[in-house]
Structure prediction request, 1224 residues.
Amino acid sequence: MRTVLSVCAVVALLCLVMASPAPAMDGNEILKKVDEVQSASKDSVGNVTMTLVDKGGQTKERTMKVWRRHYKDRDDWSVLKFTAPADIRNLGFLSLADDKMYLYLPAFDRVRRIASHARKESFAGSDLSNDDLSTGKYSSHYDARTSKEEGGVYVLDLKRKPSSERIYPRVIAWVNKKDFTVSRMELYDDGNKLWKSSEIKNEQVQGYWTPMEIRMTDVTKSHTTIMKITKIEYDKNLEDSIFTERYLKRSVKGD
Amino acid sequence: MENRFARLIESIIRLRWLLVAIMAVLTAVSFFLMKDLKINNDYETWLPVNDRVGDLLRQIDREFSSNTLLLVVFDFKADGVFTPDALRFMDRVTKEVQGIEGLFQVTSITNVLDIRKIEDGIEVANLIREVPGSMMESMALRDYVLSDEMYRGTIVSDDGRYALVATTVDSGFDEIQVAGKIIGRIDELSGEIPYYIGGDMSIAYYMDHFMKRDLTVLVPIIFVLIVALLSYGLRSVPGVVTCLTVIGLSIVWMVGVKSVLGFPFNIISPAVLVLMMALASDYAVHIYNRYQQSGNIRASSAQIATPVIMSALTTIAGLGTFGVTKIIVLRNFGIELAFGIAFACILAFVLVTLCGYFEGASGRAKAQRETALEHRIDAIMHRLGGWVHDHAPAYLLVVVVFLAVFAFGITKINTSVDFVEWMPKDSQPRRSSVLLEDKFNGMYRVSVFFQGDMEDPGTMAAMSSLGNYLRSDHRLDGHMSISDLIAEENWLMNGVYAVPETREGIANLWFMLEGQDILKTFVSDDRKQGLINTLMNEHETGVMKQISAQIEHYLDANVSDELVSVDPLKLHGPGREALEEVMVRKAAAELSWLATRYDEPRTYTAGDFGKALRDGLSARAGDVSMEPVWQEATKYLENEALEELPPGLIASLVDGLRKDWGTRFADETRDRLVGTITSGRSMDAEDAQATVDGMITRAEHAFRLQRASHVSASATAGLDPVLAGSEDFVKRSHGVVFSMLSPRPVFFAHEVKDVDGIEGAVAGTSRVQIDQSGAHEMFGRFDKLLYESQIQSFVLAAAIVLTLISLSERSFRRGLLALITIMIPLGIVMGFMGWAGIPLDFGTVLCGSLIIGLGVDAAIHFMAYYRRLYESGLGIRECLEGTTSHVGRAVITANGTTLLGFLVLIFSQTTELRNFAIINAMAITMVTGSVLSVLPAMATLVHLEDRAWKIELDVAEHHIVEEIARRDE
Prediction:
């Protein structure tokens, strides 16, 4: 009898423990997960369409090819080459670690270094800055706090670390609990006023979560940029030579 | 006619309650409509629609988000701008102002666009990325900023003491409201730091401000004075109340009509209200006065109806002539005041009739007794009438001589449309205009507007060339255009200050500027429209007209709407020579403009550069040092080939290029060089081809740079050392020469139409339309329209008044005499303006027609009373004495209230209203004097009476005779 009662007590206790909610994840842990998901693959090659929409509704479209190599312990490398429109075809960007960025102007057949101060500047007239496109890990640059949970989403409040040169001192990110993809972000300026907001649609390609569409709006200018991935392939074992100034000069073969 | 009016007065009395109800409804409706009233002191909107200058200004305003500037200048005194504290302050101000809704662009030292060379590259970013934390960093910044003409005098004064924040407003927002927010914010932030507000948006803002001050100050003053005058003149509370009610209701209804017509309040509105208060009472005073004299409202109203209505009609006619002026604010002034006068006249009859009816019904009506003063005035006038009659010829001679002397001054009248000068001397716009012109580039924009493909190399080159032309005018400064930025990038990236000669080159460099807000102030989003923006460092109307005329002349003579690029190799003999001559002439002109710019105050001509440029064109490879060319080729192969090349191969390639330099574009040469690469298996054929092409292109560019350096050095060799020491001149002149050496030079089609064989040598064409716009055009247009308005309204007013009086008097002669009575003093007043240097402006332009309409009232009254006396059987002298004594007092009283209204306006904050007041006060005073002296003198010599009067007198006599005969029977 005593044994039965003890077993019942243990079972009841176990049920109680199992019924109570699991302790919420720490914001920084969530952010690390986000970085892991974003850098899960080794590398990728993709085609992207960038559409700029001004406040009058007028649009301007550009297409580009992007090569990217992901690193776990440092900023990713990337090469971006425009394929359209014709007057900027083959214009290219190379982004390496330690804020090294290069620009290739095909009309002059010259590669030029871009200063690190340029991170704040708009990329190709879009609402994304060079900083937005840089491939650094969030966890290296921000401290995160879970401000709330909404249904299946963590809402993280990110504060820039003192040592970081990221242009947004504060970011609010909506992170999917299931897959740690980011579905929405709000980016704030130095005066803690909302500067930009972005909506992100993620899909799985080759098992990797991919931001297939990013819609970034500069709320101060009522201007939107839509980046859509039209094709992407992962783990192509990209060679180091791709991420060089010489490669930047090569003509791109768009497909 | 009197019988008809008598019936009308009877109807007014019979339908009194209905009329009261109608008046109440109209008043209520007017009050309701007032909620839609707007204020608009944006003088750009004063230009008419379908006006070329106005339409272009408005188009530019829409396309470039705003073309109005609000400039804020901070004075950092002895410490200057370049201290960490001052720079932090500027950073804070810039960021705070940027957050204001409706603001499109804010530019200051902290965020102005900076294109600079960095190691291996260029950087396009804000001038200040991080505010300097130390004096050393600040001084380094100072050296950088003050050495660059893009910043020196534009965002920081030459001496580094003042810093400027330039703002523009997003189209679609209320500019005045946004200006108010900016000024408010600046005031909160500035603390102890003095600041000055300038720019055309500040003028509109302060016009608003002074208009409101005038309304709150002048309207009460005139109200008090009118009440005092009415009380003294009428000595009857019901009379005063009735007259004030006429004034009040006519103003309310006038404002209601203003709202219906969409006329906004503006800087001239205080004049409208003050004048209405002065004029609206006139008719009621006349009618009530006559009623007081007779004690019978029906009879007195009927008797006075004709002269009062004629008086109103002539005033309305005078004001209504402004309906034809193209300057919207003047047109509105005339129309709304005309409505106001009409309402005042109608209300005077209705309300005074009703007042008299109710007074009579209550038994309060009594005839007025004259005061001692009035007796004295009558006596003086009586003597004046007699004196004028006795000395008419001499008096008129003196008047004519006076007129002739003064009228000559009319030829000296200048116009002034300088809105800055309207403001009080101690106002922000006035103080800042001095500072902006002295320490910065000025405050009024001059733009050249391009419509075409801004990415087309020909259009860019035309823009660049025109920019250099504008630089030669020292009155223009702060030049900015997309071609300037592209050329600057090209200079830093490729060593030449010129726009690229290919579409791709322009697009590539433009790519680096994308996202910079400042672009939107001079190039449209679709890149189909662009501006060269400059500022004028003077604001006098005469200077603006000069600049406008000069640019117009240049555009007419040198610009057409088609651009052609030419392949000179397809021309031979005379055709080739002719083309080269055009190229040299163009380049020489540009060098002369640049030299004039950078060696102020000397002026240079194309002839100073022509020979050196001609010699330079025929220079060959042996005339310039080729070492830099080979070095450039070597550097290219070492660092920029698609694959790393061994040093030996690099040397072979450069050597091969050197040997075959003369045939470098030939396929054989290229194939040979490609073979050199592929034979060493350093890269595949495709990459080798790309490498050889790149090397030759780079070498060719270096060669052209060398030639350009050689030619520009010799072209400027004999010139003032100031030019050689000017980095900007050297850089720009080098770019001009480089462009001259282009293998595909671009011209306006008309420049080369006579070149032999040109049709076969045209490599491409593009279209462009070029116009000038800006404050100078706007003010020039206002200037022209002022003259036109003055003449049009003057002539029209005179014609209408002459017609009206001739018809009512049934005598062209009397009409003419009445008009001459008014025109003589007007001629003297206008002449006085010329002699005294009082300009024709938005205030004084209103004088002529207004005074014709107002002044002829007195002449009408004079002639009406003179006729009455003549018909009673008096002689001419007695008629004149009686008329001047009776009408004199009435005219002095009536014109006296008008004069009072003008005199109150002398207390206006704005010069324009004060000038308006002075000139009109002079005019109305002289017109009064003319009616009481010149008209009687003319009546003495010319005689006012005529056969019509005699016939009527005969008829009257005949009736009397018949009556006597009947009685006898």
